[in-house]
Task: structure prediction
Amino acid sequence: AQSVTQPDIHITVSEGASLELRCNYSYGATPYLFWYVQSPGQGLQLLLKYFSGDTLVQGIKGFEAEFKRSQSSFNLRKPSVHWSDAAEYFCAVGETSYDKVIFGPGTSLSVIP
Amino acid sequence: NAGVTQTPKFQVLKTGQSMTLQCAQDMNHNSMYWYRQDPGMGLRLIYYSASEGTTDKGEVPNGYNVSRLNKREFSLRLESAAPSQTSVYFCASHAGNNQPQHFGDGTRLSIL
Result:
């Protein structure tokens, strides 16, 4: 069955520290992958996407993610976290042959000033 | 530049009442989706519509019906609301395969 896991429910980091949010997926065919961010009371905003090509993708707000097919992972990273990055982060996966996108359960990020 | 518009933004219902959540997009997208978001469970797909005139069930369709009225509009109906349907509902659309979804701001629904 298709699934997306985000092993960390909640992460707390200090401002200026580096960040890595984990995402693992189980999908039958070639996936396309997304990371979204949701601020409190808001909808979801796309951070970055991977369809093919270079496995390291750059997104908005200084985020990047690396697709590792052998590990079925698409981890999100940022070298230096800002207080405004505190939010909920969702990994999402879709298949090229289907129109559905499946979301992970989310990781809540808190930032200590 | 409206994008995806959901109405209403907030609603309180009593158990057994019915209600329709409205969603409209102005990006000429083929596909539209309804999700519900609950704490610790992320977004779960209720129904989706790959094109005008077609709808398909997602992960959690029970208790809901949908209508793809035209290319722009995709409504979600609760025929007999239950407290378990208290949630935040998001509508999304996208242009087709490999494209990211665009989300509305959500409808916060409480059922007493």
